[in-house]
């Protein structure tokens, strides 16, 4: 059994450990640390999965993004889902899916309208993500269409927005 809750200051090191072990490298842990120091960080959307023994076994982070259109930058009330990690020994047990669902629910509740993700093309569509190109949203880098996806938490939120996602600088620094 586990619960999902917002991160607390005492979780910082454990969150880094979860990400380092899940990704077998330190880049995601460094990204999270940089995002925490930025305006893009949304404290209530950094969530952990915690066991009854108070072990953190999963983490997900949503951070603010902007979309650059022909007429300039748009604050589209959009988020990036990145990173999402589950400890290797706890993977394939539904923890990642529970983190995604809870994060999307909380993001919608506090007024965010859309979420982009660069992720596995067969995993994220089960949450409603579609190729971002279908909404006129482009990645800021060269990736295949099927892995850059968007979900409108508020249906139609991106109907009048067409452009390129601009991630927080922290994404470029790691």
What is this structure, in a nutshell?
The chain has 174 residues and is α+β, with helices and mostly antiparallel strands. The chain is 24% helix and 36% strand.
Structural summary, described in words:
There is one protein chain. With 174 residues, this protein is α+β, with helices and mostly antiparallel strands. It has one domain: Gcn5-related N-acetyltransferase (GNAT) (Aminopeptidase), CATH 3.40.630. It is built from four helices and nine strands; from the N terminus they run βααβββαβββββα. Strands 1, 2, 3, 4, 5, 6, 7, 8 and 9 form a nine-stranded mixed beta sheet that branches. β3 (56-69) and β4 (72-86) form a beta hairpin. The longest helix has 15 residues, at 95-109. It starts with a strand and ends with a helix.
Label this structure with key terms.
174 residues, 4 helices, 36% strand
| Model regions low in confidence, pLDDT < 50 over at least 5 residues | none
Give the name of the CATH superfamily. Answer: Gcn5-related N-acetyltransferase (GNAT)
Count up the helices. 4
State the helicity in percent bands: 10-25%
Classify the fold: give the CATH topology: Aminopeptidase
Mean pLDDT value: 95
Largest sheet: 9 strands, mixed
Number of strands: 9
CATH class: Alpha Beta
Would you list the SSEs in sequence order as H and E? EHHEEEHEEEEEH
The CATH level-2 architecture is identified as 3-Layer(aba) Sandwich
Radius of gyration: 15 Å
Distance between the termini: 34 Å
Percentage of residues in strands: 35-45%
